[in-house]
């Protein structure tokens, strides 16, 4: 006849008195084995109605294939992110190269415009001087010009030519000095902003790379633990089924240790 004794930890243990002969078990199944800290070792997910035996490798192989597929897809995503980060820096470099090329083109335009304005001013000045010299050389013959209305038009053209000489000389100085130097400053500012943006981008990419590496390592660890957990669930399910069939108390104690493990 079976008796129940309590150990110091108050965990019930089945024992059989040596003085009594074992009796034929009743048709009713034996009471379920009470597992210490069952909540800690019981899987959070409900066990399937017909769990696979732990020695059956087919579910484990399917799990491994699924996990490998997930890890492979994750690695592809990580590679794609790294490729996009690399392309960002390339686009930034191409952008600064294009901007500097445009600035250099505009700067070259103003340099050549300064030469053209200066040359045009010199030609106008020569024209104005030639008109003045001719007018002074024929002053005696032209004394009566002032009495004609069209003389005002001639005089206005001469004065306008002299004003245009001054105007185009100033334009040459503006294009050749002010604008050229200004676009040099713009180019330097653009380069400085590019270097700052690139340094910020590299720092951000390093942080992203660090997070991606940590996430990749965590994913591998997670799937490894998940695989071990699935194997443990299958083994535990198999052992619990075996425990329910065991009628010997001594074997039940041995199986209890396996359950705890």
Automatic annotation (TrEMBL):
SUPFAM superfamilies: BAR/IMD domain-like
PROSITE patterns tied to this protein: F_BAR
Keywords: Coiled coil
Database matches in Pfam families: FCH
Highest taxon in the source lineage: Eukaryota
Entry keyword annotation includes Hydrolase: no
F-BAR domain: residues covered: 72-261
Coiled coil (residue ranges): 208-242
Cross-referenced PANTHER family: SLIT-ROBO RHO GTPASE ACTIVATING PROTEIN
Name of protein: F-BAR domain-containing protein
Native organism: Rotaria magnacalcarata
């Amino acid at each position: 006849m079976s008796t129940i004794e309590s150990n110091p930890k108050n965990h019930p243990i089945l024992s059989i008195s040596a003085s009594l002969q074992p009796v034929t078990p009743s048709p009713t199944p034996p009471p379920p084995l009470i597992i210490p800290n069952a909540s800690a070792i019981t899987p959070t997910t409900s066990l399937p109605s017909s769990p696979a035996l732990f020695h059956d490798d087919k579910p484990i192989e399917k799990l491994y294939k699924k996990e490998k597929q997930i890890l492979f897809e994750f690695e592809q995503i990580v590679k794609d992110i790294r490729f996009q980060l690399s392309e960002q820096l390339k686009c930034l470099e191409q952008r600064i190269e294009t901007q500097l090329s445009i600035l250099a083109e505009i700067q070259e335009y103003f340099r050549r415009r300064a030469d053209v304005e200066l040359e045009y001013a010199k030609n106008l000045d020569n024209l104005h001087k030639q008109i003045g010299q001719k007018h002074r050389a024929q002053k005696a013959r032209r004394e009566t010009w002032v009495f004609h209305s069209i003389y005002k038009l001639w005089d206005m053209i001469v004065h306008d030519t002299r004003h245009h000489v001054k105007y185009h000389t100033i334009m040459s100085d503006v294009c050749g000095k002010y604008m050229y130097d200004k676009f040099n400053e713009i180019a330097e500012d653009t380069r400085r902003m590019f270097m700052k943006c690139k340094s910020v981008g590299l720092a951000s990419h390093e942080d992203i790379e660090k997070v991606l590496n940590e996430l990749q390592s965590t994913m591998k660890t997670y799937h490894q633990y998940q695989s071990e957990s699935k194997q443990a669930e299958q083994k535990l399910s198999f052992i619990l089924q075996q425990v329910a069939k065991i009628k010997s108390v001594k074997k039940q104690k041995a199986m209890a240790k396996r359950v705890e493990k």
